[in-house]
Amino acid sequence: MPSLPKPDQDALAHSGRLLGLIRKNILDSRGWISFAEYMRLALYAPGLGYYSAGAAKFGAAGDFVTAPEISSLFGQTLARFASEWLARNPDTDILELGAGTGKLAFDLLSDLEIPCRNYFILEVSADLKARQEKRLQGFAVTWLEKLPEHFDGLIIANEVLDAVPFNVVCWNEDGIAERGVCLREGNPDWCDRPLPEGPLLDAARAIRVPPGYVSEIQMEARALVKNLAGMLDRGMLLFIDYGFGRNEYYHPQRDHGTLMCHYRHHAHDDPFMLPGLQDITTHIDFSAVLEAGIDSGLQFLGYTSQAHFLINCGIVDILGRVSPENTATYLPLCSELQKLISPAEMGELFKVMGFCKETATISSCFSLGDRSRLL
């Protein structure tokens, strides 16, 4: 059991209410649910799930820090990228998926040199939407509750795929099982069952790992990529997340998967602790994202590290807008830049993948440090 900071009584009561809902769903499903369903309840159950309730999630007061929260340089660099996109594709829109606190949208819109026709945010959390609306007062932003049927423009998904519910699979000597969730002494716990014929078993069979291996397969993330491709009439898709290509993702030494939980800046691997109070996530199999995009008719633009993407898009030039003699501003920005691009921080673990359809493209952002050979 990991040692975590103790939540207060109100937080414990909140977690207890969500636990009751999870128990009911397991019992109503004959004692077993997939981990994807458990994760959906833990993160998105209305009013109770981690992303649906009101606790702080991002930044120093929350459970983890994202790139936009680390530095405005991140959003300003994406603004530069988006401005180049809009110069080549005028009268198009921008759609941001899962905008968190609204920090990326704020920085991007504040620094955008060429206005977009519309800036949309798709946000499934009413709590986060309220925070975004407060931060983005004064900007022309439209919030969506579901994907539009058609879209023409730039879609940005920063740390979105890792929050999409995923399945957990075990490869055994006697076959392939799905690791789901049952109740033991009234509490959620891991339970395996044979995996029946279907898309998940087909995906598991295509992965070559030794017996005893346990890992994640992101079926719903693949479906999201396909849905985005289907609604995109003309435009570009940009995915920014932490992950690897398939060979590295399913490396023999990574035999317990990449599932991770975050609570008050403590990372651990027990998804059943404090449901509703902690984030649950996984690294992304970018090879699967690539296949989903290509199979859906998208043109692959490139795959690189976050560090190389930001450098290709001019983050150093943006830092150069501040004089080094202004040490009170310049030195903190240098420290923030280091966190965004250092291999020891976010620069190497986070990757960027781009697709397009029927549009003028921007491939230069993937020119330095292309990692496509690793997919």
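^ that was protein a. below is b, sequence first then the tokens
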Amino acid sequence: MYPEEHCIKAPELLREGGVGEEMIHAICSHAYGMHVDVKPEHLMEKVLFATDELTGLIGAAALMRPSKSVRDMELKSLKKKYKVKTFAAGCSREVIEQGAEMLGWPLDEVLQKTLDAMRDCETKVAEELQRQGQ
């Protein structure tokens, strides 16, 4: 409903739904510096901040592969796409790198862990989308 304002409208909507302030902070902090001033503080919030943009980039890279999957994507291949600033240009490398810095992890570690996580859940996500008719 609010694609450009989702982290601005989220607190109001989440409170109406009975969500606690800790969870609201976590959800809103993923857009820190872009749309909101809610800074990621806890590990989970920092991971979400670092990977939100990155999952979009990895998803776009997967669509370019013959398999259309992350299952056979290697870090080396992902890094090549990452370096091409015009590829998935809407996915901010600056935010991804800022997230890695917040976590104190090398960028390669953030890339690999995110790729591994997406591999682990790709089948379940596809099954759920199919179940929903999407």
